[in-house]
Each structure stands twice: as C-alpha cells, then as structure tokens.
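Z., the sequence and structure:
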Amino acid sequence: MRITFQSQYRDSTAAVEKTATRFAEAQRQVSTGKRIGKISDDPTGAATSVAERSNIAQIDRYTRAADSVDSRLAVVDGVLSDIIDKLTQARALAAGAQGSLKTAAERTAAVQNLGAVRDALMDGMNTQYLGSYIFGGSEVTTRPYAVPSGGTFAIYAGDNSAVQVDVGNDRAVTISFDGEAITRGSDAQDVFETMDQLMTAVAAGDNDGIGTAMAGLQRAFDRATAAQSRIGNDMQVLDEQKLRLQQMKMSGTERLSKVEDLNMAEAITEMTQADAAYRASLGAVGAVSRVSLLDYLK
C-alpha cells in the first residue's frame, strides 16, 4: 500500500510540474505576443528568425547610409549650382570688360569683381559636410585648395580618388569627389589660374587674353554641369534604392512575423486551458497528500 501511495504522489507532482511549465509558457506567449521564446521551442523557426533579423538589421544600416548620403548629395548639388552661377558671372564680367573703349576705372572694377568671384569659387571647392571636405577625393580631412605663400593661384591638396558608400548589397554612391576633375579636367591649368590670367588680361585691356580665358571658363562650366548631372542621377538612383530598401524591410518584417508571432485568440485559449489543467493537478496533489494509512486499512 505504501508503494501505491508514493507512486500516486510522484505522478501527481510530476503532473503539477508539467502543467505549471505549460501554463508559464502560455503566459509568456500571451504577454510577449511571440511564439518562440528560446531555440528549443522551434529550432528551425529560431534559425529563420535569426537570419531575418540579421537581414533587417543590414537593411536598416543601408537605409541610414542612404539617408546620410542623400543629405550630403543635396549639399554637393547646391555647391555645384553656386559654382556654375559663379562661372557664368565670371564669363559675363569678362565679356563686359572686352573692347577698346573701356576705361581704366572700368577695368579695375571688373578685376575686383572677378577676384571676388575667384575667391567664391575657391570657397565652394573647399566646402565641408559634417567636418569632411567633399571635393578633396579621399583626402577628406585636408583643405582641397589654398593659396600658396606669395602665390596667386590655388594648389590642389586633395587626390584624384573618389570615396563611395554602400547603400545596398550591389549599390554604392560617391560621397567625396575629385575636385581637380572639375577645376582642371584635361586642361593645362585649373580654373583659378585661368581666373588670375583673366584678371591680368582685363587689367591690361588684352582682348585676346580675355577671349582665351573665357574659353577656359566655358570648359570649367561644362565640367561643373556634367558633375551636377551625375549628382542628379545619383540622387535619383538613391531615391529608388531607399524605396527598394523600404519594401525589402516590409517583406522581411512580414516573414519574421509569420515565424515568431502567434495567434492571440488561440494563445489565450491555450493559456486558459493550461491554467485549468494546472489547478486540477494541484487539486490532485492535495487530495493525495490528505490520504492516511487508515484510508488503506478500511
């Protein structure tokens, strides 16, 4: 009889532990809304969940990079617009200074205005974004253009590389540019040297020199507009990529939800049933505990 009692008590306590575990798991699922709490709950689902979360995290990194690049390219586009305007202004000043009837005072005023335009062009090429120079190639911490001691023209201190940032698995966008590709290109001298020569020609009333410098400014204008066109294309590609990333994240989140999330109505029903089973098993243990030796002697 003693063996029978011990067996009943052991079975009852085991039932309590089992139903308690079931009830606790049901409570966890309802409180978190997640079907998987640990790998053993669903090894295959857990592995899929880890992969999807890693994919979503990568998409988030690309999205943050795309947002940052978008802001940077907007600055570059604005700077190039200003450079194009300044080159147009310089050509207009040069055209206005041509002719044998210009007085010395008019030529002096034109030279002063051209000097201001040249300085503004240099400021534009030395633009920074978040502490990094955007027209210095990969030399993002070095000021691209500076006037040498005793000199009259700027020396390019950057390099001819371009810095790119990944905004997708197979997509990258340039964020730092070769400034000399804009200011010099294939010319023998850069736009700042051309501006200095133009100022000298205007001061001397040298119409041929003015014409030569104007041609150089036109080539710089063409290079700047071509660069701005490329920036515009990159911004369009970036907008398309941001939309693609958004759609990829939505798809990944949906797949993750199918793996992890549970049907709340079913989960609440399961929790109610687990609670009832737990209470019943507790009652069974209580009943067994009250059994005495006299109950077996009757």
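The chain has eight helices and six strands. The chain has two domains: 2-33+263-297, 72-244.

Let me know what you think.
H.
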